[in-house]
Amino acid sequence: MIAQDTVVLWNRPEAQGYFRLGLACSSGFDSAKPGQFVMVRIGSEVDPLLRRPFSLLGLIHEQDRVAGIEILFKVVGKGTDRLSRCKVGDRLSVIGPLGNTFLVPETCRRLILVAGGVGVPPIRFLAHRLLAQEEPLRRCLVFVGGRSKEDLVCLTEFDLPGFLLDISTDDGSRGNLGVVTRSLEKALDAEPADLICACGPQGMLKAVAQIAIQRNIACQVSIEAMMACGMGACLGCAVAVRDDDARYRHVCTDGPVFDAHRLKW
Questions:
Q1: Residue 108 assigned to a binding site
Q2: Which tops the pLDDT comparison, 207 or 235?
Q3: Annotation-wise, does 55 bind a ligand?
């Protein structure tokens, strides 16, 4: 983990209200992994006061080194609105990489990835990392969902060898009509999975976790939470767990990736 000033390389609209931001970093991200996040300061020291957390969408490579990072964000308030107006050459303060990562065992043969809305970044990062490993998975199903087609981002990023993409929207404007977990259940009825990795809204994650628990499938979820520091000082991102030694864990230091079977939903 390192705090540093970064330079905006690009800030492109990805979909309606969504932006893809590339940042040049001097160091610190060579070992960054899918699921980890950064804390970004937007604007002055006091406006907005707090940094904003963003999952890593991926790494920017320059020849044989990591030269920067990409994040994806949706404009939902003052901070992200200011971030959407950043221009090439602007400087942003970043702390990271923070948090833990998805862990896909070598024995996994059938993996399912589930992403909803702004939960796409760590899933996209994981898919590309798996493709780059020495022995890539032979088959991976990717389920991406959104309220409408305007909430579907980075779909072409999953056009990868051995990866099958299934799209759902609540209003049926693209792909299957209905929530993404409906398509997930149909796929599991046809063939079980070894592991499910998911990121998205809390309601979606709860539904994915319940499906995994009912079917006794290993499941890792990346929890999205607002946080003030990202390093365990504020204790504002607590989640209830079933651990014997604690009632709560914290998204920033114990997560953001958790075993879905250990969370209290």
A1: no
A2: 207
A3: yes
Q: What is the DSSP letter of 40?
A: E
Tell me the domain boundaries of the chain. 2-98, 110-224
- pLDDT at residue 64 in the model: 85
On whether 237 is known to bind a ligand per the annotation, the reply is yes
Sorted by sequence, the CB contacts under 8 Å of residue 5 that are 6+ apart come out as 91, 92, 93, 94
The pLDDT of residue 219: 98
User: Is 229 labelled a binding residue?
Assistant: yes
Q: Which pair of structure tokens corresponds to residue 131?
A: 């493709």
| SS3 category, 39 | strand
Question: pLDDT value at position 27?
Answer: 87
12: which strand partners? 20
pLDDT digits (tens, 9 = 90+) for 187-204: 999 999 999 999 999 999
Cβ atoms of residues 95 and 3 within 8 Å: yes
The CATH label, of 3.40.50.80, 3.40.50.970, 3.40.630.30, 3.40.50.2300, for the domain at 110-224 is 3.40.50.80
Residue 244: pLDDT band with limits 50, 70, 90: low
Residues 6+ apart with CB under 8 A from 53: 37, 38, 39, 40, 98, 225, 226, 227, 230, 252
Mean pLDDT of 144-168: 94
- Direct distance between the N- and C-terminal alpha carbons of the chain, in angstroms, rounded to an integer: 30
pTM score of the predicted model: 0.94
- 2-98: which CATH architecture? Beta Barrel (2.40)
Q: Is 140 labelled as part of a ligand binding site?
A: no
Place of tokens 């599991």: 188
Q: Is 183 annotated as a binding residue?
A: no
